[in-house]
Amino acid sequence: MKNTKISDCSLIKLEEFCDNKGKLQVIENIKDINGNLINFPRCYFLSNFKKNHKRGIHAHKKLYQILLIFNGQCIINIFDGKNSKNINLKQGSGLIIVPGIWRELSNFSDNALIVVMASELYDKNDYIFRKLDFIKYKSE
Ligand code: TYD
After folding, report:
1. CA 81/CA 119 separation, integer angstroms
2. What's the predicted TM-score (pTM) here?
3. Residues of the chain with pLDDT > 70: what percent?
C-alpha cells in the first residue's frame, strides 16, 4: 500500500483481566484502514536476539501485522518514506503496523520474545527488502 503513513500505525493496550488465578490479556477486533475486521492466519515468534543486530529491516506491500512483546522491551522504528518514529514496545501493548511501512527492530532487552500476528500467509513477494526500493515505491 503506497499511501499509508506512520500515523496509520497504532500502539494499542491489550485488554487485561487479573484475578487470584493470574493474568489474562486479550487482543481482538482489529480493523484495517477501511474499517474492515482483519483476520490473522499466521503467527510467528522472534527470539535469540544478537547484540547490535537489528531485525525486520523491510516493508510489506499488503501485510498487516501486530507486534507484541513478552519479556522486556525493544525499540521499533517505523518509516513511511517521509516521516519516521521510534516506538518503545513493552509488555501489555501491541503495535499495529499497516502495509507500506518500513520497520526496524532494535535494542532488545535480554530474553525478549516478540510475537508477530500476520494478516497473510508467508509470501516472499510481499516484501520490499531494500530501503531505496521502498522509498521509490512510496513516491510512485
Ligand atoms: P526474516 O524475515 O529475515 O526475519 P527477521 O527480519 O525478523 O530477521 O526471516 C528469517 C527467515 O524465516 C527467512 O528465511 C524467511 C523465513 N520465514 C518463513 O519461512 N516464514 C515466515 O512466516 C517468516 C516471517 C519468515
Report:
1. 22
2. 0.96
3. 100
